[in-house]
Every structure is written in C-alpha cells, then in structure tokens.
Amino acid sequence: MTAPWWTRSVVYQVYPRSFADSDGDGMGDLGGVLERVDHFVDLGVDVVWLSPVYPSPQDDNGYDISDYRDVDPVFGSLALLDDLTDALHDRGIRLVMDLVVNHTSDEHPWFVASRSSTTSPTRDWYWWRPPRDGAAPGAPGAEPTNWRSAFGGSAWQLDEATGEYYLHLFSRKQPDLNWENPEVRRAVHDMMRWWLDRGVDGFRMDVINFVSKHVEPDGTLHDGPPMPGSPWGDGSAQFMSGPRIHEFLGEMHREVFEGRTAFDGGPLLVVGEMPGVTVEDARLFTDPARREVDMVFQFEHVDLDHGPHGRYDPQPLRLVDLKTSFGRWQAGLAEAGWNSLYWDKHDQPRIVSRLGDDSPAHRRDSATCLATLLHLHRGTPYLYQGQEIAMANFPFERLLDFRDIESLGWAHEQQALGRDVAELLPGLRAQSRDNARTPVQWDDTRNAGFTTGEPWIAVNPDHTTWNVAAQRDDPRSVLAHYRRLIALRKELDVVATGDFAMLLPEHEQVYAFRRRLPGADPAELLVVCNVGGEPVDLDVLLPEAVGRELVLGNLPAPDDDAVLRGWEARVLSGS
Ligand code: TEU
C-alpha cells in the first residue's frame, strides 16, 4: 500500500491575526494571507492550517466561535476565504480549517438559546449543573466540581438568571458543548460537511479529546486532585479522552469524512489536537484501520520544561528527557498510526529561545539545528509562521505588554494569592503564548511590513535583522534551510516512511538517530545534532558517523568531520 500523501508533506500553520494585515487596521486578515500565498510555494509546504477566522468576540483570539458558517469581518468574508482556497488549490496546496467544537462562544445562538431558561429545548446542549449539595448559587464551594479553568479560576460560571452553573474548561465566554447529546453531534457534523462542500481539505480539531467527559449515568461529574499553586483542582482526568471518545470520533468519521476527498481527489487531512493524550491512546486514534483521525497533536515534549506549579514555573528542558519522550512516540506509532512533529505553534513559546540559543552568535545555527532534528523524524512536520526565519520570544517587560487570556488569567490568579508581578514576569516571559503571537516579521520597515496601522500586539524589535526579506535570497539563512528540509522529505522515501531508531539515549548534548527503509536509495540515514554550543568528538562518541556522505548539513561542510561543531546538525547517508 502506498503511504498516504501526508507522510511526505509539511503543514504550515497560519495564525491569521498575526500573519499579515491588508487593510491597515492592525489585525492580520485573509487579504494578508492571499497577498503572501507564494510564500508557501517558496517554502514548498503542502498544507496550510488556518487558525480560526469565524465570527467571534475574540475573547480567546477566535477560539470562541459565535457563528461556524461565516468569516469574521475583521478577517474578511466567505468570498475572500473562497478566493484563498482557490489560490492555494491552484498552487497544489491544501487548506485545513481549525475546528473548535468542544466549546462555542457564549454569544453563539446555540448557547443564547440554551441559557434562556432551564426548560429551553436546547438546555442540554451545554453542561448545566445546580449548585453543589444544594448550596446557594454563588456561595463559596457551590461550584459543581473543583475543576480549574485553563485560563484561571473555576471551570464553572454561575448564570444568575437560572441559578445554575455552566461548564467552561477555558474562558467563561467558551461554554463546553455537551457531546453526550446526539443533537449536538448532528449539528456539528452538518456544519463540518458544509465546510467540506465549500472545498476545504480537512480540519485541525481543537482539544477534540475533551468532547467525551467522564460522566456518570445520572450526570454526576467528579472532582479532581488539588492543583499545586491554585485554589482549584485538576479535572483533566475527568475531561480528557473520556469513555466515549473513540465512539464519537468513529461516528464523526462515518458521518462527515467517509467517501470524501480533498480538492485533488486525494484523502482529506484530519488532525486531532489532544492535550494529555498517551502514546497508547494515540495509536488507537491514528490507526488507519479504526478510521478516527489521521494524526494527533500531543503535548508530552512541550510539557517537559513545566515545573511543579505548571507552565509558568519553567525548569530547564533536559535533552535526555526529550529523547525519551520523542523516542517513545516514534516507537509507539511505528507499526500503526502517525506522528505530528512540531516545536512552535500559537500556544507555545519560540523554540529557538526555549531550547535553542537566540543570542546573535548562535541564533541561526541553533534554529537550523533544531529544525533538522525535528524534520528528520518519522511523522508530518508542522511549521508555525515565523519559525521559518527563527523568530524568537518577545522581550516582555510589563504585564501590560501581554494580550493572551491564558497568561493574564494565570497572572491575575497568582496576584490574588498574594504573589508580586515581579515574581511572575520571568515565567510569563519564558512561556507565554504571546511569544508566538507577535506579528510575522516580513521586512525591516516599521511594524516589520505586517501592517500600516497600529499592530494589535507589539512587533519584536529584532525584526530589523530577523525578517523574511533578509533571508529569502540568502542560501545560508534559516529560511533557505527549511526549504532544503522540506524538499528532502519529498525527495527521499527514507525520510518520509523509513523506520526510526534512537541512538545515544543518555547523552546530554548530542541527539542522534537512524532512519532505515530497505530498498530505498539511500536505504539508511544517520542524523547527528549537537544541541549545544560546545564541539563534540564524534570519532569518540559515534565513530560510525565519521566518514559518511553528507546529505544535508546546517553548517558549511566540515574540514574535519570527526568534530561535530556547536549547534551542528548533519544528515549522513548510510555506510
Ligand atoms: O489549546 C488547547 C490547550 O490545551 C491550551 O490550553 C494550550 O495547549 C495551553 O496553552 C497549553 O498550556 C487549544 C488552542 O490551541 C488554544 O489556542 C485555545 O486557547 C484552546 O484550545 C481553547 O480553544
């Protein structure tokens, strides 16, 4: 059986509000994407994943949808989205929409109707519960469970009019849909088919493993254990990958995807974002024989530098831990299923600052080293806007600099616990989602060519040096290296579908692995990456890596290949 098209493809994620602004209002929009569609051709990517552009109050930057069948005027129109779809298809590029169906906006008509009264016919489209144990609505401890919202505070919001609480795992303006109700699932499937009829080529499904909660037959939901650093509990075991998740995804596959194809007649692409998913579950979710999803976004590697108090309590990311995690995922999905491979995305800080070295001396080399490490793994690489030019974290100085509801929600929760802002800033500076949401740096002009207006979030001052224009024609640029990596995946079958074997699992600085595909040419690749600034003696550490043909390197060919230079990555052909 020939391997599916996405085994040799790369997906580019566009976060539209920060990509490019075509009308000068300071917000990125579809016109900006359309103007730069040839940037995707220049890179050689095969899919564009578009973060939400639907009508939304923008409480969570569009992940709070108030109308699933339109485009928010701030981004453009359905007609403009059709133009972008056509422009991408004309260039052989698929469009995958971001689908947020674990929750809607509280301004969605579905929720407005559901909250209108306890006897509303659609009351059961959302999770409504009375105060716990008959307590008075709004009384301390009256929340139905102790769950913390991802954005701080209780995951339950009291609706004064009816005296009941509704569940919101994210912001209070993002009420969770109740997927136990078949009417909800039917409405979601219908909407998804509507988008496929418009010609989109698949979906990235937001926190899709949250749609099945662990709920008792009588509707009881259970508390979670205490959450360090928060007055609330950790409900994740109660709402992640619940008992009906495979049933719901199988039903969705039958009702929505069965028999459908992408614009070129090939298979659609269905990606499940699944915080907390295990390798064992992912094997079930992505096994083609089970017809659930094609691949998942897992979070193990991006949680490795979270301290005991979570994301904003960062600790150094140890390379050995990364190898253990990536190695487990490579082995776990080797026989069935498929990995998504990512560093950056709109919810994560920039990898060149997080694991690389964004100092002027090492930024280019560390970014291209980490790019090579990831792209040579088995799986589909995702490239987040700006990563192709090594955009780095932003030098946040004050709480006022941040826009992200998650960062600010955590900060306000911590301040309420008596912590001083000065104590919170280092964790926010290192880990805030806003690091990935500063405008893409197109050139060295004012606002980096992102907008002629006032950007909704500050442009990184380093755009005068780090921008697309400065890199496009430079063969040694980060951008040029990504072009070569993306081309290599198309060119070499061993990159696309070869097996994976981790080497040097205990080495704290060198990340090395082997790829093999018997019968391919080459049938074997050896990849060695020095994830650090100090040179390493390869002839001592990995003698088999010395004297091989260099297929692709991120530094000029070495005089002495027995020494692996600081931040050097080499892709070497077999024997
Ligand atoms: O994110 C899922 C999620 O778990 C987020 O809380 C995110 O991973 C977190 O920041 C990690 O610490 C998805 C979207 O990607 C995110 O932008 C949305 O805010 C969230 O769902 C709600 O829709």
From TrEMBL:
Ranges of residues in domain Glycosyl hydrolase family 13 catalytic: 13-429
Entry keyword set: Glycosidase, Hydrolase
Domain of life: Bacteria
Residue ranges that the Swiss-Prot or TrEMBL entry lists as coiled coil: none
InterPro entries: GH (IPR017853), GH13_cat_dom (IPR006047), Glyco_hydro_b (IPR013780), O16G_dom_2 (IPR045857)
Protein name: Alpha-glucosidase
Enzyme class at the top of the EC tree: hydrolase
Keyword match Hydrolase: yes
Gene Ontology terms for molecular function: hydrolase activity, acting on glycosyl bonds
